Amino acid sequence: MSRFFAAIGRFAVRFRWVVVVAWIAAAIGALHFFPSLDSVAGASDASFLPASSPSMQAARLAAPFQGVNETAVPVAIARDGTPLGAADLAVVNRLASRLGRVAGVRQVRELGVSRDGRAAELRVLATVNLDAPGPAHQLVTGLRRAIAAGGLSGGLSGGLRSGLYAHLAGPLATQDDASQSSGHAGDLGEDLSIVFILALLLVVFRSLLAPLLTLAPAVLVTQLSGPVIAEASRAGLRVSSLTQILILVLVLGAGTDYGLFLVFRVRESLRDGLDPGEAVVRAMGRTGESVTFSAGTVIAALLTLLLATFGLYSSLGVPLAIAIALMLAAGLTLLPALLAIFGRAAFWPSVTSPGAGRPGWWGRVAGRVVAHPGATLALGVVGFGVLATAAIGYVPGGFGGTPPAPRGSDSAAGNALLAAHFPAASGNPTSVLLRFGAPVPGALGSGGPDLVAAPIVKAERRLAAVPLFSGVTGPSDASEVARSQFISPDGRTVRFEVALAAGDPGSDAAMAQVPAIRAAVAAVARDVGARGYGVTGQAPVTYDISRVSDHDLLRIVPVAIAAIAILLALVLRSLVAPVYLIVSVLLSYLAAFGLSVLLFQGDGLPYFVPFLMFLFLLALGEDYNILVMTRIREEASRVPLRQAVRTALARTGSTVTSAGLVLAGTFGVFALVEGAQPGGAPYQAVLASLALGILLDAFVVRTLLVPSAVALLGRLNWWPSAYGAPGPGLSSGRPLAGTPGR
Question: By Cβ atoms counted within 10 A, which residue in 255, 383, 642, 714 is the most buried?
Fold first, then answer.
């Protein structure tokens, strides 16, 4: 393997200019000819639920009112300070016609005038769902242009103004405004991460060019991977909104880590007296396998996501694996080429002359670890165990409430109008569906509320008596014109809009009440003779997502562990080491998760925190395992094992902790940026949790606990290999038979 990677290094050195130009041309070509990632990334978690989930079954019941693949966009119309007159209602009718001609709109329903007579509501049904951000933005833009063409723009979003005005409201308009106002968040996070990484690498290398060269491949891959993944989506690859954030974080963080593995080793080889070209070749021969298997563990863990039943998770696997594969290719070709071009100048003004460098702090730490491995391991396990117990207090949550519309936006004005003049459920409705076996007698009749069928009236009264609901709106409350929004054309399905006593349907409190809500609705359905029932809305969807996420965690964990254990066994040539390395990752994960519960629990951590923490800490933690263990194995081919541990830890300690700081800092920067965005708190929690886990892993587990375990186990570490076994080769300085030489 070392000869193979040395050959790759030799190729990159010999054709260094060709390699650099090829990568730059590939990035420019992808940006020019391929679509952008944000134009294809989906945004709706609900659309990723399996078809068997209760929320999706309820959505099928609601199809007569709003197709499964349709989106409802409320439009609020009002006049400043005065009731609507006949002329105003005529304008509303003309606006409905104009909105109906917007591309993608299937139907526009007039829901009537508010009880105070000061506002009217239209509901636009469009065949564009929340999982299609590009067409969704086009729909919102088209609707607003239609409103502007009718002279109804302004009002609350543009200051006090007399006359009639209209605003879009609801989740789609809010999401689009938030996306537009925070569209710079990803770019800002990327820019701040680059600045942070460069500042850290300047301290680590004490040189001007080495940080730039280490980071350059990762920055280029961030520009290349997005368009490549977006192009793959045309062939059916599904991409979620979470993918965009994680690609930036993973590529910048993990890519810089892989660069550190190589650049530190090149500097070490230069200090051993090699010329720059040979230093790169030797460093590639020594670290190429580690970098490849490190990326391989991440890719393997990501591909296990294909087993997930929750589409949000399964959609992450392949796109992120593509990004890491591109990063690996750049790390094995582009970075060696850049190092060969700049040579010793890459490390100026630090000294790279033969004999330079000293063991430093990690050399002293290594001596203490090897001298007291049992105490070090015991203290670490006890400390991590205490932190892990905090995980018992984990309460899964949703997103902590519906993200607010940006201040001063059109959707903020529209949502304010709905809240002021219509039931609180209108902007973010929770709907109860009852399906009867035959048309309900009188359901299709015309006239006033007295002619509404008795079973429907009974159902509405029973629902109103449920303590979990603070308000119910149904056919009895609607005028004859607007009643079609509550009774399906065939008269068999009846819909009620309910306001939840728990408050915001997006809150954790509302999500926690979903089982009780479904039980109450089931009782009402039985009482009125309905054959089917369902509850739709944000609360039931989030609840189902949380349950599916927990199921996927239990399903994927064993597969991911097995896949990574096989890779560890191959790279370490051992059947023993992978066992305690996997255990160390699990311990690190539980401790980091417990710490996250202590710091971020609040009303409930988002449901995806435990899943994503496990996946990324398992995969990224093994990066550092591989770097440390392969260096110990290399040193153990020449010297006794405990001395090999001291030497390896002295040489790799700075690499691991620097890489950990880079990766954790990248997660931390994005956590700060996301926390400042509307609705960004859930992403902030998971990113901050990952940062904490990586810091614990890099500074304690990989550099203290794992070396202690190696020192305690001795030659058993490498069974059935013979690394570290005493023999003539040790005293003579030659490698053992069957082991790689220097």
Answer: 255
